[in-house]
């Protein structure tokens, strides 16, 4: 890790879910993923590509598995401009260079959307920013593009329009006459002509034909190294002298002088600005031109193993609904960090993890390990300067309540927060911080033993849901259940409750998570930090996303709520 | 106008007929009257419609990829420039997609979408790839991620439907080449890949087939002579003095001689290393550095000797007139940029930082030395044609004034260095391809890609490995002659 970077960047706490992507065809890591069931290396370099926040994950009903962006297949169903929401027909997407062919442009300076403005009065004086550029038609044409964010406007570069619509079309002409386009077509003609003349007589290996990919694999291999031969054939097969189609292009004369006397950094384009104008990638800001806005797509996502559709958006560009939306948020327990005091070296600290159940069934969660010891392999130089691998213990995590139940999701309860919060687990449940609504919060005790930039630990979550077909029945008994549970030990409760309904379908799924808690600091004098009560009274989860995703949950489910209550 | 498109082009899979005649039309029609519609056809005139590439791109237009260690250039064949240059040096996907998670200054907003590339600086790959045992797996993931993004977010096309032209540098490790092929075939399921040598492709964009192609990229500089469209690979020379060495030098110089002002205090303090993030360095490098037109290094053995960082201020600071630049530091917090201070970049650093590329020693040849060593290895009768057709490609050569300084250094070295005495007759022959013909019509960092696009668009049988035939092996020029010896070749 680069300590240099982390100083300026605050590492946020997070809970990321691991997806093993068993169906991604990747033989090299097959062995690894098998091992992963028991051990899960949170320090492996691939971790960033296999763990995701829950909002990025899908859930395949048929495979009963988490699916991540890596193990879904995508199909584009619709192209549209994010600005005007115009749906672009598939046939013209590529010829429009994947950009909006109507009126949408992005600012060459700050990449925000430009708006078309009618010039109320003629502007005879060129803008002070680029005095060298003559505003050719500034007085003549009435419309120009203007950026509402950085105040750039297209009159600065002398770009004005006769009409307020179809701006892309008006610019198309200059676009087509760019020297690189001309030259490219000319080159293509030249080589095509050469190929046409040479293909009949392939008895001699034409050198151009032996460009890899141009003729047989054999000549591909012989091309390298056959230098003596090459010379003797020079006359017969070389391309005839090429005459460029365009005059010599010498962009940006005097650039060095300008750079020598540079005072304002904003006169030189940034890399981002240049990469938005690949035709010439100019150094000077006044050469930048507005670019059409890039199109976006709506995509269907399928599970790679069973080919079932996980995400299917509404085809229309304006619609934000999804016809099919199998996201992990609605199918697996959501874990949020509800309380996170500062982690202080060698001091046991209690954090609260909140598990929310998005299902309409009660689930029981099993965290398997009661104690997690985090070790890190570090190379340590010994006396002889030989690097040796050594395991250093970073910290210890104790889960006080590794088994617990979460009551089903019930949208009615969502609106009665006050009522539920009174049912707080007052006693009896060791390690359970709170139970309310469809969530259970548990206490974890963290003991950091090393000063690290990011304290993170793996957590294997296994949950079992019992699918009662009889939904109405469950809806009625929910409240009673939750109150009954809080009074008795949870493990026994779950057995008792489901003992008489043993003919139900039980589904179990286990997945790894990585929980990052930010940095560990040295103990400042006079701080205790062991109690959970102080920071814990903050009920809103600090692990971001908590509140917003719950909101969407309730919104999505509100349609079905009437049948439940 | 889009309505007219959809009505005249049938929106079913009954498509591909229009493509073949279109190319012939272009080549037969007189140049002056042919509208340049291929690949970038104007949407307006209905004449242009039959020229359009097929709806589903069954074979005619390919995806051209030039995968570098910092940037991937991607686009469609038959077009004169890549559609996108995607920075791939950032950390990982999570940071890439979480707009709240901004690193310091590392915000690169691309393609108009709100995807920002953020994170720790790391090249996509290194040339010494074998040294990292688990590096290949991580690289597979990174590459797969970026290529998926490129296909679905930038090119907006289904990888399964288009063949791929892959520009490959001759020094690309075989393992890496195999890995790229594996990602493309297994993860993205492209139908086929054609490999094309990058130097050769770049040369074709000048219309010439003979030249000394010098690629100054990020990881290293490669000099490859090409004669009559044949890359003379045995004579290839490389040196690690390239973009990465320049960044390193810039960082050293700025930490030693730069200063910064952080309000409210007004005094200049030495630069704290934490502010010199790779993103800041890359920004300074690509915007404010240029190659000095003056040579002042004394050259005892012809090629300028390396100067220690400690001696540089004495040597350069007094002989330049370049202005200092006040570079604002920004830190982005929750997606918003906030200026926290100003970095003073001394003018002499701006002008003299790139000296690192022209100073060499026995172990690391300078860029100029590397080119001359290459010439020294080539047969005598090829030297003059090669020396008169030098082509500089790669991102680092975009530094203003690079080519002119390169030419001067070349002449000086030829005149003074005893090692290259046998080359001294070339002095009158030195010439650059970009000084003739169409000049810098294509930007030097895209020339390879443009060549790939050219090759991909030519109507000819294109050699490719298809997905069905892919068994993990890729063509390798170092061993190809041996492994194919059982097959009869036409010229033997």
Biggest interface, chains and residue tallies: A-B, 146 and 156 residues
Radius of gyration of chain A: 32 Å
Indicate the percent of residues in helices of chain B: 25-40%
Q: Kindly report how far apart the N and C termini of chain B lie.
A: 57 Å
Low-confidence stretches of chain A: 1-9, 25-37, 123-138, 200-236, 470-502, 527-565
Family (chain A): Belongs to the dynactin subunit 4 family.
Protein name (chain A): Dynactin subunit 4
Subcellular location (chain A): Cytoplasm, Cytoskeleton, Microtubule organizing center, Centrosome; Cytoplasm, Cytoskeleton, Stress fiber; Cytoplasm, Myofibril
Biased composition (Low complexity) (chain A): 542-565
Descriptive terms for the model:
heterodimer, A: 565 residues, 6-stranded antiparallel β-sheet, B: 492 residues, alpha+beta, Nucleotidyltransferase, domain 5, 5-stranded mixed β-sheet, 15 helices, globular, disordered C terminus
Task: Give a nutshell description of this structure.
The complex is a heterodimer of chains A (565) and B (492). Chain A is α+β, with helices and mostly antiparallel strands. Among the domains of chain A are: 101-177 and 250-292, no CATH class; 332-564, no CATH class.
3D structure, described in words:
The complex is a heterodimer of chains A (565) and B (492). Chain A is built from 18 helices and 25 strands. Among the domains of chain A are: 101-177 and 250-292, no CATH class; 332-564, no CATH class. Chain A is of the alpha+beta class. In chain A, strands 2-1-24-23-17-20 form a six-stranded antiparallel sheet. In chain A, strands 14, 16, 18, 19, 21 and 22 form a six-stranded antiparallel sheet that branches. Chain A has a five-stranded antiparallel sheet with strand order 6-5-11-12-13. In chain A, β21 and β22 form a beta hairpin. In chain B, 31% of the residues lie in helices and 15% in strands. Chain B has 492 residues and is α+β, with helices and mostly antiparallel strands. Chain B has helices at 2-8, 19-28, 93-97, 135-155, 174-187, 198-204, 243-257, 278-288, 309-316, 347-352, 367-377, 380-387, 402-416, 447-457, 480-483, and strands spanning 63-67, 71-76, 84-87, 164-168, 192-197, 211-216, 221-227, 230-231, 237-239, 259-261, 269-270, 325-333, 336-345, 390-393, 465-466. Chain B has four domains: 2-51, no CATH class; 63-89 and 124-205 and 446-483, ATPase, nucleotide binding domain (Nucleotidyltransferase, domain 5, 2-Layer Sandwich); 211-242 and 363-435, 2-Layer Sandwich (Nucleotidyltransferase, domain 5), CATH 3.30.420.40; 243-357. At the A-B interface, α1, α3, β2, β5 and α4 of A face α1, α2, β3, α3 and α4 of B. Chain A: This is Dynactin subunit 4. Chain A: Pfam families: Dynactin_p62. Chain A: Residues 542-565 have a biased composition (Low complexity). Chain A: Belongs to the dynactin subunit 4 family.
């Amino acid at each position: 890790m680069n300590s240099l970077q982390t100083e300026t960047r605050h590492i946020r706490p997070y809970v990321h879910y691991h997806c093993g992507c068993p169906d991604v065809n990747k033989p090299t890591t097959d062995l690894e993923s098998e091992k992963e069931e028991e051990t899960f290396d949170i320090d492996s370099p691939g971790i960033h590509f296999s763990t995701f926040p829950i909002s990025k994950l899908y859930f395949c009903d048929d495979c009963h598995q988490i699916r991540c962006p890596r193990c879904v297949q995508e199909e584009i169903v619709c192209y549209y401009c994010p600005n005007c929401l115009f749906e672009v027909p598939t046939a013209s997407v590529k010829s429009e260079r994947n950009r909006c062919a109507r009126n949408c442009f992005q600012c060459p300076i700050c990449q925000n959307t430009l708006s078309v403005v009618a010039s109320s009065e003629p502007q005879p004086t060129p803008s002070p920013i680029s005095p060298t550029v003559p505003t050719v038609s500034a007085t003549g044409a009435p419309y120009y593009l203007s950026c509402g964010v950085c105040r750039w406007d297209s009159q600065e570069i002398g770009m004005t329009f006769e009409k307020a619509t179809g701006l892309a079309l008006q610019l198309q002409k200059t676009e087509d006459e760019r020297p690189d386009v001309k030259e490219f077509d000319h080159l293509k003609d030249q080589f095509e002509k050469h190929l046409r003349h040479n293909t009949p007589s392939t008895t001699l290996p034409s050198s151009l034909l032996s460009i890899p990919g141009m003729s047989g694999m054999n000549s591909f291999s012989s091309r390298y190294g056959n230098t003596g031969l090459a010379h003797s054939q020079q006359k017969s097969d070389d391309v005839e002298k090429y005459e460029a189609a365009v005059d010599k292009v010498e962009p940006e004369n005097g650039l060095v002088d300008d750079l020598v006397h540079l005072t304002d950094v904003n006169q030189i384009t940034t890399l981002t600005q240049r990469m938005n104008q690949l035709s010439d990638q100019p150094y000077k800001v006044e050469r930048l031109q507005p670019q059409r806005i890039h199109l976006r797509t709506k995509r269907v996502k399928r599970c790679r193993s069973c080919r079932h559709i996980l995400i299917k958006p509404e085809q229309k560009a304006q619609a934000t609904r999804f016809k099919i939306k199998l996201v992990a948020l609605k199918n697996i327990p959501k874990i949020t960090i509800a309380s996170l005091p500062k982690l202080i070296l060698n001091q046991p600290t209690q954090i609260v993890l909140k598990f929310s159940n998005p299902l309409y069934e009660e689930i029981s969660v099993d965290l398997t390990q009661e104690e997690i010891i985090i070790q890190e392999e570090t190379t340590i130089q010994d006396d002889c300067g030989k690097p040796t691998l050594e395991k250093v213990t970073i910290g210890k995590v104790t889960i006080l309540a590794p088994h617990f139940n979460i009551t089903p999701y019930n949208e009615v309860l969502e609106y009665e927060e006050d009522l539920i919060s009174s049912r707080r687990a007052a006693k009896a449940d060791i390690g359970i911080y709170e139970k309310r609504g469809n969530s259970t919060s548990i206490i974890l005790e963290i003991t950091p033993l090393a000063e690290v930039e990011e304290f993170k630990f793996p957590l294997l979550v296994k949950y079992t849901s019992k699918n009662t077909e009889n939904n109405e029945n469950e809806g009625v008994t929910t409240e009673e259940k939750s109150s009954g549970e809080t009074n008795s030990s949870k493990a026994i409760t779950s057995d008792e409750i489901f003992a008489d309904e043993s003919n139900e379908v039980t589904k179990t799924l286990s997945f790894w998570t990585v929980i990052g808690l930010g940095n560990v600091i040295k103990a400042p004098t006079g701080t205790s930090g062991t109690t959970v009560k102080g920071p814990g009274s903050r009920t809103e989860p600090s692990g971001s996303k908590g509140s917003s995703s719950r909101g969407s949950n309730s919104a999505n489910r509100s349609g079905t709520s009437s049948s439940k209550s | 106008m889009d309505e007219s498109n959809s009505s005249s082009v049938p929106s079913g899979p009954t498509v591909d007929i229009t493509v073949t005649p279109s190319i012939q039309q272009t080549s037969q029609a007189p140049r002056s009257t042919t509208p340049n519609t291929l690949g970038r056809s104007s949407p307006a005139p209905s004449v242009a419609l039959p020229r359009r590439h097929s709806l589903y791109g069954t074979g005619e237009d390919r995806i051209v990829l030039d995968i570098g260690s910092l940037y991937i250039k991607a686009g469609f064949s038959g077009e004169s420039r890549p559609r996108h240059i995607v920075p791939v040096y950032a950390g990982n996907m999570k940071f890439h997609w979480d707009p709240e998670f901004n690193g310091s200054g590392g915000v690169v907003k691309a393609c108009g979408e709100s995807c920002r590339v953020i994170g720790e600086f790391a090249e996509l790959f290194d040339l010494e790839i074998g040294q990292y045992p688990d590096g290949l797996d991580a690289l597979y993931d990174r590459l797969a991620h970026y290529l998926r993004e490129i296909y679905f977010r930038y090119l907006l096309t289904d990888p399964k439907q288009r063949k791929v032209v892959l520009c490959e540098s001759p020094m690309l490790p075989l393992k890496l080449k195999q890995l790229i092929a594996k990602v493309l075939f297994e993860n993205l399921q492209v139908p086929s890949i054609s490999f094309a040598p990058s130097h050769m492709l770049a040369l074709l964009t000048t219309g010439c087939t003979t030249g000394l192609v010098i690629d100054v990229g990020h990881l290293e500089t490669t000099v490859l002579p090409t004669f009559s469209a044949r890359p003379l690979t045995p004579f290839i020379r490389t040196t690690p003095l390239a973009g990465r060495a320049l960044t390193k030098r810039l960082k050293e110089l700025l930490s030693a001689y730069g200063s910064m002002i952080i309000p409210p205090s007004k005094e200049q303090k030495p630069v704290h290393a934490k502010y010199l993030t790779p993103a800041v360095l890359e920004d300074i490098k690509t915007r404010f550095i240029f190659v000095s037109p003056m040579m002042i290094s004394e050259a005892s053995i012809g090629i300028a000797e390396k100067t220690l960082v400690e001696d540089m201020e004495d040597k350069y600071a007094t002989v330049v007139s370049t202005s200092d630049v006040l570079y604002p530091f920004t830190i982005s917090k929750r997606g918003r940029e906030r200026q926290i201070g100003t970095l003073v970049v001394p003018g002499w650093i701006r002008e003299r930082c790139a000296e690192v590329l022209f100073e060499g020693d026995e172990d690391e040849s300078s860029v100029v030395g590397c080119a001359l060593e290459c010439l020294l290895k080539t047969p005598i009768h090829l030297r003059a044609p090669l020396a008169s057709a030098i082509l500089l490609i790669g991102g680092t050569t975009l530094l203003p004034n690079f080519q002119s300084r390169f030419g001067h250094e070349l002449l000086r070295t030829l005149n003074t260095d005893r090692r290259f005495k046998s080359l001294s007759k070339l002095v009158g022959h030195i010439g650059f391809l970009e000084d003739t013909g169409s000049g810098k019509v294509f930007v030097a960092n895209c020339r390879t890609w443009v060549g790939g696009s050219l090759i991909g668009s030519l109507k000819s049988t294109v050699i490719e490995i298809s997905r069905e035939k892919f068994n993990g092996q890729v063509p390798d020029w170092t061993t190809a002659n041996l492994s194919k010896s059982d097959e009869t070749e036409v010229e033997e």
